[in-house]
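Q: May I have one protein plus its fold?
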Amino acid sequence: MKLLQSIMSVLFLSTLALVGVFNYSKTVKNHNDTIIQHVDQVKQELYDHVNRQQENNQTFNEALTAINENKISIKEFMNTMDTLKDQVSINLDKVNLDSKSRDNILLKDINTLKSYYSQIQKDIDNMKTTMDIKIVNGKSGYTKDLIYNKMLYPTVRIGVFINIDNDKFDPSVRLVSMGSGSIIYSKKRMIIKDGNLEVSDDIDTYILTCSHLSDDIYNLSHYEIHTFDYEGNYTKHKADRIANTHSYFGKDLMVLKMRDNKTIYKEADFITEEEIDNLYIGSEVVNVGGGLGARPFPGFGYITGKYMENSSFDFLWQTQAPGIFGNSGGPVFTKDGKQIGVVVRISVTRNGNPMPHMSYFVPPQTIYDWLREERLEYILID
């Protein structure tokens, strides 16, 4: 009987041990399943994140394309970037919340995901700050390339110097007038050699400006041209007049030629005659010039009139893009960076106060016609 009891005890304990082992194995399996579930969930979140980021990239690229095609403004683009950043912030907050309720074994993966989202936030900020975009009047967008390369670099400041016939003065020349102008041609000179047309090493550079900078000056010495890098530096050059039409008896235009024949300068892109009909009252324009003797700067506005009424200057067009003394001779550009005119006048009140929002410029067709008369039309044609 005792033997039977001993056997039964052993069997009972063995059964308990087997049940314990089975239950422990089940617990381990459940825990492993939970870990696998969590890992799969994090993997899925990473996969979803990649998809979301691809969608974000697509949104960014679509917005950028829309800007280039002038379908949306820069302000709208920036709003899109803010929306993307807000969405990433929501995703990051969700990951932070999930990390508090998960096993420590997953913290490495969760921290990787958090780091990933944080980097995306930085990327979006970098997109916004490194895009070469200016918000102009809260409405229209101009890239740095457009403003600098198409408008600022081709624009020059011009000083007019006269000879002084008096030994008491040193130097023997004096600055008497300042204005602005645009480099409209800077290319290697074509020459005929041995009956063949060849490209020489010499460079011709022409500047378009207004004639009234030096009308009726008979002891003219030279014109001093200032080109700028817009990093605080400018370079002086000398130039000579090769053609002009008087400000009162003509169209108030002048062409100068740089004495430097070794340097190619950034040219203004002049509108073609075929494109002139696309200009209308309300077209967006930019005046660029050295107002009050400053280095050239842009002023934004619109064409507000074509052809002055009751005036001998009825060929002029009007704009409310700001201009002031010193802008004379400076270029007028379209929003795409094509030069369409030369600033020659601003309005003044009866007591002589300037009205900078009412300035006038010589329109493109008048410029083409005059250059043809002077046989200089080639400087506007590539």
